[in-house]
Design brief:
Order of helices and strands: HEEEEEHEEEHEEEEHEHEHH
Oligomer: single chain
Strand content: 15-25%
CATH topology: L-amino peptidase D-ALA esterase/amidase
Largest sheet: 5 strands, mixed
Radius of gyration: 19 Å
Structural class: alpha+beta
Helix content: 10-25%
Strand order of the largest sheet: 1-2-5-8-4
Length: about 350
């Protein structure tokens, strides 16, 4: 048992939904080979975002600036489909508006739904819908509504939601999640849709995030005896610009200000660096959202932000590795288990 194991432990599900008041829903179009993941808090929540990739695609992220007027969000969406997938947030908005959820503006109510997208347009699925001049055939609004309907504390990993059509370097990517409970009872969780340009494994199949693993959550495989050549992985043949991206959401029940959440988002990006090599490239749109349900008052606001940020980075690294570990082979995208397991 590592020292970290005695300090933090995974929650009961080892999912982001171990944070009380969080639900996650997934929906996929297997013909198109794409999908949507929706995180729904039980009540409006403080949120922030940090974007490091050079080719990001997003919606409503400007609202998350600490100086912005809108203080809370009603949902966060991760989607495939590149820019076409930005339709998904509209589906979530419609679903929330029908239930009276959103930011009140006079007599109107406007749901606040930030979103980020990943690129899965070249994975061999039937993409005829993307050439429909009316846009009516695109699946993302309906997928988003379906994800909202199924949102719960339990959800599938791997080929699920936004991770359905994802790839990770030369392997099948996917949806991963992990959680940690701190000694004071505060809970931190992460969910990641892994569609990275960089590799998540060393040459022998060990995960770059091996040091963060709890139990055998991504195979329990030890690191190689010899230090791998990290530069060789970084210099492999380039991908298409904007053709990748890893997206993550971190959630905690610790009460945070928008500025606190922003700092934790910055720290949580380190989880990508521990799990993906290379990362934050010009080809990626790497983005981390942070959401606070505010159910637990901080004992020491500054120290608690530092602790939660450190644990958030750990959870993100674990979620990335789990997303690839749990994925299944899809067409030409070979799974980790089939190649190394």
């Amino acid at each position: 048992m590592s020292a970290a194991d005695s300090i933090v432990r995974p929650g009961a599900r080892n999912l982001i939904t171990d944070v009380p008041g969080i639900g996650v829903g997934n929906a996929e179009d297997r013909r198109v080979r794409s999908g949507v993941t929706v995180l729904l808090p039980a009540a409006p929540a403080v949120a922030a975002v940090d974007i490091r990739g050079g080719a990001s695609g997003s919606r409503e992220t400007a609202l998350l600036d600490a100086a912005g007027m809108v203080r809370h969000v009603d949902a966060i969406v991760l989607s495939g489909g590149s820019a076409f997938g930005l339709d998904a947030a509209g589906g979530v908005m419609s679903w929330l508006a029908a239930r009276g959820c959103g930011f009140p503006v006079g007599r109107a109510v406007v749901p606040i739904v930030p979103q980020a997208i990943l690129f899965d347009l070249l994975n061999g699925g039937d993409k005829r819908a993307f050439r429909d001049p009316t846009g009516a055939a695109l699946p993302y609004r309906n997928l988003a509504k379906a994800a909202c309907e199924t949102a719960s504390a339990d959800f599938a990993l791997g080929n699920s939601g936004a991770g359905y059509g994802a790839t990770a370097g030369e392997l099948k990517g996917g949806l991963g999640s992990a959680s940690a409970v701190l000694p004071d009872g505060a809970t931190v969780g992460a969910i990641a849709a892994v569609n990275s340009h960089g590799s998540v494994t060393m040459p022998d199949g060990a995960f770059w995030a091996w040091a963060s693993e709890r139990g055998d959550e991504f195979g329990g495989r030890p690191p190689p005896a010899q230090r791998p050549d990290t530069l060789a992985a970084a210099l492999r043949s380039p991908a298409e610009l904007g053709a990748n991206t890893t997206l993550a959401i971190v959630a905690t029940d610790l009460a945070l200000s928008r500025a606190d959440a922003q700092r934790i988002a910055v720290m949580a990006q380190d989880g990508f660096a521990r799990a993906i090599n290379p990362v934050h490239t010009p080809y990626d749109g790497d983005t981390v959202f942070v959401l606070s349900t505010g159910r637990r008052a901080p004992a020491d606001p500054v120290a608690d932000v530092a602790r939660v940020g450190a644990v958030a980075a750990d959870c993100v690294a674990r979620a990335v590795a789990r997303g690839v570990y749990e994925a299944e082979t899809l067409a030409d995208a070979l799974s980790w288990k089939e190649r190394y397991g």
